[in-house]
Amino acid sequence: xxxxxxxVILSILFVGCVPVPTPVIGAGTGIGAGVMHSExxxxxxxYATAIRSYFSTKIKRGSTxxxxxxxxxxxxxxxxxxxxxxxxxxxxxxETTVAVPTRTGRYLTPRKYMxxxxxxxxxxxxxxTHHKLITLVDR
Length: 139
Fold this sequence. Notes:
Structural class: alpha+beta
């Protein structure tokens, strides 16, 4: 009886120490690429005009600003650990720099943004190039 109880306790300790495997998200080649592609949707084609119109309403003198765009990349954003850490958004991200002119016409130092897309629509913009909850799928 004592041996079997000891074996059960020992097996529970070993099972509790096994790390949980993390999900692997591929780059979209091979088996299952169509499923992953459908999860993120199509890449935005008119992302430049969508970003310009979005920032023209959000930033003062945004319609006369200078923009630079990186190509769209797949990404996902998680909820915080307090909210369970589940995936909150899957889609495409475009890194953008925006240089806004002053009243005298001189352009300020460009600010970097990450613009999140769902299809052709802008979901959110994040100031900066790094965010702890965003994971880029395409490197």
